[in-house]
Each structure stands twice: as C-alpha cells, then as structure tokens.
C-alpha cells in the first residue's frame, strides 16, 4: 500500500508537510557515466526541490553498462541514499524506451523480435518462402527477415470488397497472372520482422504478443532487480515503471481500390489463438479486416480481430508483468503508447483501458503540454472501478527550457482533478554532456536556475495529494467507451476516413463538454465489464466494481456488446437514468439488431450536442460555478471525494490563460448539500473556515478567481441543530432557476460563518507608488557569448565554410560512414571503448568592440582538446568550475583583444565523439543583429523589458533587479509585478525574503512596513532557452522539442538566432492593503 497514512484522519501536520509518498518522483535521466558522487549530490538537490523520490531512468548517453554489476551497484547505492533522505526509489524497466527489450538483450533472439503481417501485390524474394524455412534459418543463428504465409484473390468494385478467396500452398510464381477480371487482384501475405535500429542498440523491438518473449524480458530485467534489491521491494522501492509498450500498428489502406502495401499487427500464432477464440481461421477472413463490405455492412471479423489483438497484447505483456509484480510485492506502473484518441489506441494498443486491468498503479503520460483529458480519464476510471490507490502521470515532458511555474501548476492541477496522484516530472538530466542536453528538455534538476524555488510547486501538489488520495471518488455518471465501434469502422480511409474523424471528434467533444460542464464521469470498458463485478441495483444505481453510478450515457455507438446491452437494460428497468446520445446503435456484437431501439422507450435519447448533454445531466450535478450574470464558467475542472460523512472538493483552472494575469473573474461556487466548509490552502498549508451562504439545498461560496487559482475544500455535514438554521430560509416564491445567481428573486440567505473568520486571498488594495526603472542589477552567472557556428576541416583536408555545429557534426559523420547523431543512435554503453582516430579542427572568429584582460570558455571534455587563442597555443587551464552542468567545464583564456579574436580547437574524433557549442564567459555584453554577434560592454543599468535586447541575448541565469521605494507613512503593503517572462520570481524587502511570485495576479504580500525608504530586490529566475534551446528552429508551431527539433531544415531553419523574451517586462507596483 502506497498511502498507508490514509488509514488515519488527515492531520494538520501531514497536510502542512507531506511525507515522501505524496510527493513527485521525477524521471532521473542516467545519461552519462554514473558515479556515486553524482548520485549523492543530485539526490540532495531533489530533496531540496521537494521531491519524494526518484525514478532511475537510463537514457541516451549512458556509459555505464546496463544491468551489469556496476550499474546494479549504483542502483543499490541510489536506493540507500534516498532512504537517508526519507525518499523512495522507483525503478524503470528499460534502457531508454519503449519497454520490452532490456536494451536489446531480449531481441538478440530472433524469435522474440516484433513482426507484422504485410499484405502486398508484389512478391518479396528477400523473405523466406515458408515458415519452416524461416525457422530453420533461425535455428542456425541466422537473422531472416520474415516468411511467406499465403496469397489471396481479392475483387474490389467501386472501392468495396465483393469477393475474395485464400490461396494455400507454395507461393505463386512470379509469372502468375496478377489480375484476373473474374477473381480480382493477386495479393501476397508475408510475416515481416522489424528491421534492426540503433535506437534498440542495433536490435529490434520485442514481440509484445509473445508471452515467452515477455517472460524473457522479465527474467533479464525484473529478476535482475529482485536479485539485488529484493529486501526493499514494497518498502523503499514501491514500483517499477514500464514505458510505452505497444504493438506494431495495423495500418488502414488509403482507399479500397488501391494496391499499396499495408501492414497489420501480427504474431506467429495469432491465427491459432484467433481460431480458438472464434472458431474460424483468421487468414481465411483476412481481407475483411482491411476492406469494406458492400452496402456498409460491418464485418464481425474486423471487430473480432482488433479485440483479439488487444487481448493478446494485454494478456502477454501487461498481465504477465503485473502478475510478477504482485507476487514480488511491488507495483507495476507506467504508461502505454498513444492513449488519447480512438485512432491512436486502435493503432498501437487496441484499447487503453484494458491495459490497466491488472496494473496496480495505472499510469499515463502527457507530453507537449497537450490537453489529453481522455488519456487520464481512461486510466482513472479503471483505477476507480478496481479500487486502485491512484494514477501515475509522466508530465511536463517536451515543454522546452522556458516552461514556467504557471505551466507546471496548470498542467498538474487539471491532472490532479482528473485523478493523478503520483507525479513523474519529465525530465531531470544527470548530465547535459553531448546529445543528452537535447533529450526533450527542460531539465528539472540543478541545471535549471529555478530548482531552488521548485519546492513551492512540489509542496503544493504534495498537500493536494494528502487529500485527493483519501476516501473514494464521488462520480455519478458512466459513459460507455466507443472504442469497439471505432474498430468496426477501421477500414480504408477513402471509405471510412470521414466517419472515423467524426467519431474521434465526437469522443473529444463529449469529454470536454462533461468535464468543463463540471459533470464528472467514468468510462466503462465493454471488455472489462465482462470480468468486473457488475450489478444493476433496485435503487436505480449501476455497480461496477468499487463504483456506483446513477446515470449511463451511450454515446452514438455503431455496435454494442450483447452483455453490455443486457446490463444497461436491467439498469434502466430498475429506474436508472439511461441516456442515448445521438444515434442509437444499429448493431449488437456487430450484427444488425433492433433490440437497442426498443430500449430507448425506457431511456432518454438526446442529440449529440453540448446543451442537450448538460441539460440531461443537470440532476447529476454536484458542483456548479457561475459568473455574476448566471453564465457557467467554462475553464474549470473539479474532483469530489467521499471520506466517511465528509467530502473533499478540489476545483482548478484547466486552461492556460497567461494573457489574463491581471484579470479576475467573480465566481459563485454552488455545492449540492448543506455543508460546513473549510479551506485547505495547498500553497501555504494553512487551514481556515470558509465564508458560505445557503440557498435551496445548496452551499454557496463567492470567489474572485485569477488565471492559476485553485481551491481545496473540506465539506463537513452540519449537526441537526445547525441544520435548523437553514430551515429558516424562505422557499423561492417563483420557480427556481438554478442559473439565476442572486438576482434578487431568491429568498434571504444565511451566513453561518462569522465575517472575521474569513481569510480571503484577494483583499482590496490600492496603488501607493510605481517603480518604473531598477536602480541596478546583478547577474548570478557570467554573461555568455554563444559559439554555435564554426569553419571546420577533417584531418588535413581543406577548410570548409562556416556551419552550425550540429550540422557540421553530421556532415563529418556522413563522410566517415558513422551513423548520424540525432534522435536514434546506439547507446555508448553498448558500443564500449571506441578509438578516436580522426581529427576535427574547428575555427571561430569572435568580434569584440572592447578589450578584457581575460575571459573564460566553457566546453565539454577540455582535457582532450588542443587550443589556439589568437593563433597562440593555449594551455587547458581547468579552473575546477563548471558552467550550468558539471559536464561543461570552465577553462581560462588569455586576453580578449579589441577587434577580431580567433579560436582554433583540434578535437580527436570517433563515433562516440560529441561536437557541441562552446560558451565564452565573462563580464561583457553581447550585441546581436540577425546572424552577427559582437562582444561589447555590458549595460550598466537594465531597463524593464526584454534583456535579450540589453546585451544579454544568450544569458540563461538569474537576474536580480535592485530598486527602492518610499512610504510616506506606515503601511501594510504588497508588491505586484504585472508583466514578466521568467519561470518564477522571488522578492526580498530590506534583505528579508518575503516569498515567490509565480501565479496571477503576480502579487506578494510583504506585511506592515515603516514609513521611509525601503530596498526591494527581485530575483528573476532564469531558464536555459536562450543558451541551450532550439535557437535555429523558426517554426512557432513546432512542439516536439527533442533532438531532431535542433536539426530542422527548409522553412523551419533560421541562420539567425530565434531568441525568446526574458526579464521583468514592465513597471513594479507597490500596493497598500486596505
């Protein structure tokens, strides 16, 4: 059990300072040569950041041999270190991702390699002519690419399948008549193995539908961890994370009449198990999976294929690993590939919900700050129904270096509202050396200047978790998941594409309408209903596992299972609220059936529209939030939990509204029932009583809401005597209108809490004075001049023109026959020692308008370099210091002269060598125009505004603005910074820290100050975008900020640096609190 402390009532101490199990546990990227020293230092940093644990995650760049003795010693060492900090050590089951290969060790055995079925009109002579020949070659230790299965005659008329037959026996000869007017086109079916890839260390992905392959994966990985760490399983080691397991996707034809190659997910014994399940040979009916039947008639075989495929994947991979974890007292967690849409699930999983059925801690990932509400809803629904402790989320990944605290809070908030309890921030770099620095930044570790303020975020979410892991989710509404109807429509794009797009759009809209309409719901997986404890009660509720629902929505399905239909029939007969949204299903188990239409007589049928849905759901409403004009808010999520007689309510913003930083919205929160309400402030840990009014059986709370605000309330029922007070409220004399908030037509409302007990955030304030410019500023780090272009030559060859460093790196690799260093390349630990036989020389010209007696340079592996500064040999005088990351070392350079300075560097080069940017450091400024950068004097004084235009274009550290203000009399003041571009600010008045500023309305209360002059220092925490970001990627819509985003081409490439604003952008205001 992860949350053992939830057995007792929540106390103030635990809420104020939550223990490790409630805290985030980041992906810690082991992406270098791992050492005990690095482990010690960085775990201490994580502890200071407020994290409760770490996920040991091997990533690109790791030098330590995976799963070997040195690696296991370091994992054990890390576990011991986290225990000294009262933290947890979470394991990860793969070298990089996706999980299943153990860094390529599993798929060294060809039998375990991923494969697919290829249907083509072309003979593939490179593949074996039979399974028997294929097996013989495998037995000899060879690596054949696949084998022939059978052939088909397929007849297509106007894009639809009118006839087909399977051709058994030997592969037809190459001179066979390919097209017969009477029988159609000749197609060949092959089983084709996945090709080897450097991403899998020159192996392939695993066959996730092969249980024997998965058992091999467990033996190599899980058993290895257990061998070394078994005593800590279920103690300091709570879980092991599996990452992005997936099937080789089944593709759809572009059109029913085309003859393009197409692939289907497959494993060798799939036809056998399909026949065992459905009594028919899969290969006999294979064309129906790909082509549409005439007249829009659905194919039962297509539905069964996708269902069986999913079952094979889940039973072989997910269930097998979960069973092992259960037996070894550890949780299986992690996430699957492509969870969000009906299409993506069909392609990579079958259905996401089935994957979670045995997972002790269901998990998801949210990348690129995408609003994947479906992804979390699917996982949390299974967690609710199976009584799991929570949901894990890998979050913040692929958001770039300048993702700020607002982004961290908003994304974390809406995920918490949907049920996420274990936060796995992506990603904390152990090192930034080489390619590791581009591994989907930012680094949530010491390399980001804001790390020292991150406990503000972590403490907040940890406090939330002490509450949102308690009791059970209070959800009244269930929605039948439409994935199986999508399978039925998964045919050629030309015939089914528009329908499938509409189905996915409907799916997305329905989720948004309900969630933003503040109607919480769970999905029902039809495949899981067959194994769950399901019961339609006489009280009109539907029990699914641990949950009870009062309403069931059927969202325009094409087909429904007969078992599902029987269950909802009983539910409706017992008085349950059954709603058909849009068209009623025409098929039961993919066969035409009118029984669903008859059921609508006992149910409610509505149009597939937002208003119709929310109107139908109004009786289910637990919470509503309304503007003064009665209009409902449309940017909030909520979660309600039941703990004994009490309830917990969390409401948060779910949309990024940074443009509304200074705008509040007056809200009336209405909660069904009469409650005493207590505020649990998760930002600071304080608890107080809330001011409430009561009306028509609802509790009302007024709030001024800003863009990142969230609220956590405990709702306690009133004792009988207290409830008598509410009875004094008059009943409305005219018909109640829930949406008319305090229009004067309602009765008197009672305030049951004394005014002086109300502690509101947004007390009235007025402007005392404005600071228009700072007096001075201080940099936390030396300024930086970025050298990311150079002339170059290989060995003694001719000098080549100036080129961006990553481009010239790949040009050199191409010349030498090395694979490019991009997203996918073999791990250093797998390569071992590689000689550096070549020599690359880089030549830089640095223009300076000033002279300086000395500067320094930050560079990787300086001990390997031969340096010439202004054509004079330069001793590599290492200072012991580093710049940003310990892998980027600082080297002293001689005098910087006015004019052109030259830097020549000779680098021994081999397959594992990294050519990277160089950073000149010193007390200077930098002037940038387009592609030209010149060293100049640093600005003596900054103005409020973008510092990239004030001689600090590449600076990524923190800046402290020094200023002052004068009070004419004693005053209780706050400081407001209306506009800034930075992750977070911290404020100090008269050298006393008063706290951070990260969220709207950008105000920090300072308390009562005496009349006179006061010093104000505002530290603007840096981010590393303008130093290490995608500075030559000029596509503003680009969102996959990984290694390839640094290597764009064409219209997405800019020779000029694409910098992003940073700093305090406008005035600072001193406010008096009334």
Automatic annotation (TrEMBL):
<protein>
    <submittedName>
        <fullName>Uncharacterized protein</fullName>
    </submittedName>
</protein>
<dbReference type="InterPro" id="IPR029062">
    <property type="entry name" value="Class_I_gatase-like"/>
</dbReference>
<dbReference type="InterPro" id="IPR053161">
    <property type="entry name" value="Ulvan_degrading_GH"/>
</dbReference>
């Amino acid at each position: 059990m992860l949350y053992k402390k939830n057995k007792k009532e929540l106390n103030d101490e635990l809420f104020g300072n939550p223990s490790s199990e409630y805290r985030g546990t980041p992906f810690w990227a082991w992406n270098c040569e791992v050492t005990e020293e690095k482990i010690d230092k960085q775990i201490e940093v994580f502890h200071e950041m407020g994290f409760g644990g770490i996920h040991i995650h091997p990533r690109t760049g790791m030098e330590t041999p995976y799963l070997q003795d040195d690696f296991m010693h370091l994992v054990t060492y890390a576990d011991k270190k986290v225990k000294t900090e009262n933290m947890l050590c979470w394991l990860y089951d793969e070298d990089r991702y996706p999980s299943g290969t153990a860094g390529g060790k599993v798929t060294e055995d060809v039998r375990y390699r991923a494969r697919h079925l290829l249907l083509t009109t072309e003979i593939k002579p490179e593949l074996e002519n039979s399974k028997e020949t294929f097996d013989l070659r495998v037995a000899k230790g060879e690596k054949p690419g696949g084998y022939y299965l059978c052939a088909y005659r397929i007849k297509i008329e106007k894009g639809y399948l009118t006839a087909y037959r399977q051709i058994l026996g030997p592969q037809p000869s190459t001179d066979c008549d390919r097209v017969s007017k009477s029988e159609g086109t000749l197609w060949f079916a092959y089983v084709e193995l996945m090709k080897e890839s450097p991403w899998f260390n020159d192996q392939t992905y695993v066959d996730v539908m092969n249980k024997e392959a998965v058992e091999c994966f467990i033996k190599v990985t899980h058993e290895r961890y257990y061998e070394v760490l078994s005593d800590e399983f279920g103690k300091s080691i709570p879980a092991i994370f599996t990452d992005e397991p997936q099937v080789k996707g089944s593709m759809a034809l572009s059109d029913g009449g085309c003859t393009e190659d197409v692939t289907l997910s497959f494993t060798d014994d799939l036809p056998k198990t399909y026949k065992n399940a459905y009594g028919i040979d899969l290969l006999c009916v294979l064309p129906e999976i790909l082509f549409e039947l005439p007249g829009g008639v659905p194919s039962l075989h297509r539905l069964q294929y996708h269902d069986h495929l999913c079952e094979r994947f889940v039973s072989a991979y997910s269930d097998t690993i979960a069973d092992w974890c259960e037996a070894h007292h550890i949780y299986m967690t992690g996430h699957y590939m492509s969870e969000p849409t009906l299409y993506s699930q069909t392609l990579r999983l079958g259905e996401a919900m089935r994957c979670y059925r045995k997972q002790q801690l269901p998990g998801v990932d949210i990348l690129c700050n995408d609003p994947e509400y479906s992804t979390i809803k699917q996982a949390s629904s299974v967690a609710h129904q199976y009584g799991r402790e929570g949901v894990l989320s890998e979050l913040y990944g692929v958001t770039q270096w300048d993702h700020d605290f607002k982004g961290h809070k908003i994304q974390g908030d809406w995920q918490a509202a949907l049920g996420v309890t274990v936060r796995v921030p992506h990603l904390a770099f152990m090192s930034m050396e080489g390619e590791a620095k581009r591994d989907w930044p930012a680094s949530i570790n010491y390399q980001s200047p804001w790390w020292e303020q991150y406990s503000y975020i972590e403490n907040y979410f940890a406090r939330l978790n002490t509450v949102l892991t308690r009791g059970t989710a209070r959800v009244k509404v269930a929605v039948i998941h439409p994935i199986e109807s999508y399978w039925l429509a998964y045919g050629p794009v030309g015939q089914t594409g528009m329908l499938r797009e509409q189905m996915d759009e409907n799916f997305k809209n329905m989720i948004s309408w309900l969630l933003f309409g503040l109607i919480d719901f769970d999905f029902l997986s039809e495949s899981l209903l067959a194994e769950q404890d399901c019961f339609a009660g006489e009280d009109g509720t539907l029990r699914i596992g641990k949950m009870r629902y009062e309403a069931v929505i059927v969202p325009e399905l094409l087909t429904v299972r007969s078992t599902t239909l029987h269950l909802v029939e009983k539910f409706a007969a017992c008085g349950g609220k059954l709603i058909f949204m849009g068209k009623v299903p025409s098929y039961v188990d993919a066969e035409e059936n009118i029984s669903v239409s008859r059921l609508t007589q006992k149910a409610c049928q509505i149009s597939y529209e937002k208003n119709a849905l929310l109107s139908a759901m109004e009786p289910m409403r637990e919470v509503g939030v309304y503007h003064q004009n009665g209009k409902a808010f449309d940017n909030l999520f909520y979660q309600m939990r039941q703990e004994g007689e009490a309830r917990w309510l969390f409401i948060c913003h779910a949309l990024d509204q940074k443009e509304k930083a200074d705008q509040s919205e007056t809200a009336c929160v209405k909660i069904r029932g009469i409650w005493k309400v207590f505020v649990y402030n998760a930002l600071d840990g304080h608890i107080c009583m809330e001011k409430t009014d009561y009306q028509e059986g609802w509790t009302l709370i007024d709030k001024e809401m800003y863009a990142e605000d969230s609220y956590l309330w405990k709702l306690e029922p009133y004792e009988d005597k207290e409830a008598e007070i509410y009875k004094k409220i008059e009943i409305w004399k005219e018909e109640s209108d829930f949406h008319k908030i305090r229009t004067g037509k309602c009765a008197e409302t009672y305030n049951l809490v004394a005014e002086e007990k109300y502690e509101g955030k947004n007390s009235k304030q007025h402007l005392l004075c404005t600071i228009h410019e700072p007096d001075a500023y201080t940099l936390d780090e030396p300024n930086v001049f970025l050298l990311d272009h150079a002339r170059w030559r290989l060995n003694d060859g001719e000098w080549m023109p100036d080129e961006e460093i990553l481009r010239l790196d790949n040009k050199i690799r191409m010349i030498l026959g090395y694979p490019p260093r991009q997203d996918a390349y073999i791990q250093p630990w797998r390569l071992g020692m590689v000689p550096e036989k070549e020599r690359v020389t880089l030549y830089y010209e640095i223009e300076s308008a000033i002279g300086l007696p000395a500067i320094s340079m930050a560079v990787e592996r300086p001990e390997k370099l031969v340096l010439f500064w202004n054509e004079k040999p330069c001793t590599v005088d290492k200072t012991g210091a580093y710049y940003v990351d310990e892998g980027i070392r600082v080297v002293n350079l001689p005098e910087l002269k006015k004019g052109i300075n030259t830097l020549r560097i000779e680098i021994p080069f081999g397959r594992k060598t990294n050519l990277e940017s160089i950073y000149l450091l010193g007390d200077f400024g930098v002037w940038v125009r387009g592609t030209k950068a010149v060293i100049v004097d640093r600005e003596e004084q900054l103005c409020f505004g973008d510092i990239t235009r004030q001689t600090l274009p590449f600076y990524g550290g923190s800046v402290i603005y020094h200023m002052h203000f004068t009070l004419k009399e004693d005053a209780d003041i706050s400081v407001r910074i209306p506009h800034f571009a930075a992750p977070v600010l911290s404020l100090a008045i008269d050298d006393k820290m008063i706290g951070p500023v990260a969220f709207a309305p950008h105000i920090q209360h300072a308390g009562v100050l005496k009349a006179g002059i006061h010093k104000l220092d505002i530290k603007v925490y840096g981010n590393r975008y303008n130093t290490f970001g995608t500075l030559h990627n000029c596509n503003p819509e680009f969102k996959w900020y990984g290694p390839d985003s640094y290597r764009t081409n064409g219209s997405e490439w800019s020779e000029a640096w694409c910098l992003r604003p940073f700093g305090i952008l406008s005035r600072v205001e001193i406010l008096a609190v009334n």
